[in-house]
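anyone seen this seq b4? input:
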Amino acid sequence: MLILAIDTALEACAAAVLDTDAGELLAQEQLLMKRGHAEALMPMIARVMQSAGLAFTALDRIAVTVGPGSFTGLRVGISAARGLALAANRPAVGLTTLSAYAAAIIGQSQSAPVISAIDARHDHVYFQIVSGDGSQLARPTVASIDDAIAASQFGAPHLVGNAARILADRWPKNAPQPVAVETQAAPDIGWVAWLGAAADPDTNPARPFYLKAPDAKPAALPPFAQAASS
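predicted toks r here
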């Protein structure tokens, strides 16, 4: 199976092509960035596909991270995945950013529970907890840092994600201490591709996975506009 993987959910823009039959990435590229994903993504995808020596119609599916993450970044990646899937007549699958973070740890056959954490700002994090074999211990949610730590009573954890250090710095001294802390700006694009190969397109659609409303709110309409719309 040939998979094009895309990630623009956080502070990176990444794309890769995975050949599952060969068990290897044919091409990959990642650029760390806080903004500019829209301008960087399509040229990056073109370079990755050219490096892999493939036409888009040779792909079996397209995988994309669907959140949690930046609202703007998610729209960029998901729109690209959907558009390419439509043009190539191939399925697009969505993977959560939290599961992509955890996949690399689970793939190392670690026994410790894995806490994936993403900075949600305002002293909150998006997080989920899985066991060393990947089974779910706490479903994805958004919570205050203290509440996230309080929910993490499954033994000494492996922390991963762009908020891993944030959790580690607040970890109680009297609790089992994290066995590892891996602060990563974005998940490994290779694991996004592998998760995409395993996902069922019918149950993992390429649509945004939001755990909270956006911080920015639409401006209120002026009185004359409210009257016109009523």
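Confidence is low (pLDDT under 50) at residues 216-230. The chain has seven helices and ten strands. kinda curious what u guys think
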